[in-house]
Amino acid sequence: MIPRVVLGVVLTVVMLVxxxxxxxxxxxxxxxxxxxxxxxxxxxxxxxxxxIPGTMYIAQSGAIYSFSAGRFHQLTPEAGWMQPxxxxxxxxxxxxxxTPLYSDVWTLNLFGTPLRxxxxxxxxxxxxxDTGANHWSFYPRLSPDARTLWMAYDQPKFxxxxxxxxxxxxxxxxxxxxxxxxNASDYTGGDVQPVPVGNGAIIYTKFDYGPDSxxxxxxxxxxRAYSAGRALTGPSEDCxxxxxxxxxxxxxMICTYEKQVSYLAVASWNGSTLxxxxxxxxxxxxxxxAWAPDGSGIAYLAxxxxxxxxxxxxxxxxxxxxxxxxxxxxxxxxxxxGTLPSPSPTPPVVVKPIQVTTNDGFDATSPxxxxx
Length: 372
Known about the structure:
mainly beta; 1 helix; globular; disordered N terminus
């Protein structure tokens, strides 16, 4: 019989060896979903499998990155930078820098160097921790003439009822020169994501309670400060994230239909009214659609797997725009009397979205900026 002391020593050695080895083995079988996202500049494999036109600007973990020619470049440190947009001429970036107590809108050059802080939302030092004295700005956009800065801003606010409303201010001025444009509903989160659509008008996302008392998003239109405006989508559609196409004739959006889904939808736009919605992608949790500057497709964010972090995807135009049918040709050998025969129909080509990145984790609340 083995003495108890020897047996104890043997069992201790077994535990010390087998325990760590078991942990290592199980770790090798752990789902990649649990692995922290890599920085876009260090991701493997690099996003070089697709040629995307122009340069894209995208946020991850408080930093803004550019993406062009299949490579990412980090433009800002990981210091609360988010929600980039571009000046109309594409020469500068407009972005938000958030802190735990407030956020501000900044102008940066295309290399990520801050040029000017447009807002100054920090409370005076003696009121540093006063929630009513600090303010928040989000989703900045410049008007087509670059003279007006649109943004979601937390004024007016009353105690703990803090909602965002759409504001317009001179891009070269201060918030004190700005005007509130929308009347946000209390205890909803408010009005966000303004998109200038020409003639001094905007579309934006309004969060409110629908007829069934559920909090939903609707695309909304207004062309006058503090007017009621009007809804472009219904409460049952629950739509948000509007993006205007380069030619100004279509709007991409995200609609959930009050379910745990997130569809990519596209509708025609005539300057004041949306056409019927066409659902383009219905099998992914889509966020933040952005049109290619040359009209060649739509980029968006969605998880690569199940509940994984959000990756960059690209949907070629052929996936949602029907091809132009070829013109019928006359019968060889002379003139043709009557209507020319139509060509034989060809089966449609199924075009699927392309996953551009595999192990990043982009900010799904931060729009994508894209210049040609």
